[in-house]
Amino acid sequence: MKMIVAIIRPDRLDEVQEALAESDIYLMTVSDVRGCGRQRGYTEVYRAQEQEIRLLPKIKLEIAVNDAFVDAAVDAIVRAARTGDTGKVGDGKIFVLPLEDCIQIRTGETGMVAIGP
Fold first, then answer.
1. Whole-model pTM?
2. Residue 21 dihedral angles phi and psi, to the nearest 5°
3. Which of 9, 76, 100, 101 has its CA 20 to 30 A from that of 39?
């Protein structure tokens, strides 16, 4: 079992969800987050004051999958989250982490069965 954590642009969320659904991956947690990477933010003028915005709005997806779905999930996210043909700085990152266990609260099922298909 793996936990896939993806940080993407907010405007790409719908495309990523559709791409994951095409790969039969529907279960995910979505959070609004802020962060910075190579984009390093931007400067904005607000009420005649110049302000540097360092933390940019992003979307964080957390997806628990069985090992058989890892490659399909990563491929779907990369395909849908990439801007243009070659991508741009700020398109995001994907982290694949080992997932030790999963427990479904309602039934008490554990492991791969608790994650579902």
1. 0.86
2. -65, -35
3. 76
